Amino acid sequence: MTKNSFDKHATSSYADGLVRQVPGYSTLLPMVSQLLAERTPTDARILVLGAGGGQEILALANAHSGWSFDGVDPSSKMLELARETVEPHASRVNLHEGYISDVPQGPFDAATSILIFHFIPLEQRLETLTQIRQRLNKGAPFILVHLSFPQTEPERSLWIARHVTFGQSPNADPAKAETARQAIADQLTIISPEDEEKMLQQAGFSNASLFYAGMSIKGWIAYAD
Q1: Closest by alpha carbon to 189, among 129, 131, 118, 124?
Q2: Beta strands of the chain (E only): which ranges?
Q3: Rounded to two decimals, what is the model's pTM?
Q4: What is the pLDDT of residue 78?
Q5: Contact between residue 116 and residue 50 where contact means Cβ atoms under 8 Å apart
Q6: Which domains can be identified in the chain, with CATH numbers?
Q7: What is the per-residue burial (b if ≥16 Cβ within 10 Å, else e) of 179-208?
Q8: What is the reported pLDDT for 84?
Q9: For 105-147, where are the E strands, in sequence order?
Q10: In the chain, which end has fewer C-beta atoms inside a 10 angstrom radius, N or C?
């Protein structure tokens, strides 16, 4: 397999995984595009936290020819995949390896973080949100999408199980499904929707509203104070 064909296979496999594991993923990104466009100029500069893979930037760049993007991700392999994915729009995309502290100060006209925050330790979440806010123009929209559901039992375990079941193939190994459930329970940082909105407010965002709910995944739009 040549490098080019491998890259295409990796991109396709990653995209297929998102469609399988995230309810309504194919319509989620158009929703994000529409909501951002409500408050951003035609030449907007967009900050993307968790840009590895490149699917999000690709969708937004396809829809908005005047937007430019700064994306950051800690995984060099995922950034390689992102570069391949967004290659048609390479002149409008800057990718940075690292974390929010490694991103230029901006100011940016909007920001997104899709399917990332459940990987960020709880003690780093507020600081991460605050650093995003510091890089935004006043009134700029911020899209936040990730796992969020009640943290009391039995609801917590039920929603984890539902998330795993939705994303698995019809003939999935029950043992692997149990391993996935345990990994989510032990390794991811998930808080309730109510606490998500409180933290957004603490970080300097207002008017947070839920625009997406797909099984165990929730999505908000909020605005920089």
Answers
A1: 118
A2: 45-49, 68-73, 93-97, 110-114, 141-147, 205-214, 217-224
A3: 0.90
A4: 93
A5: yes
A6: 3-224 (3.40.50.150)
A7: ebbeebeeeeebbbeeebbebbeebbbeeb
A8: 95
A9: 110-114, 141-147
A10: N
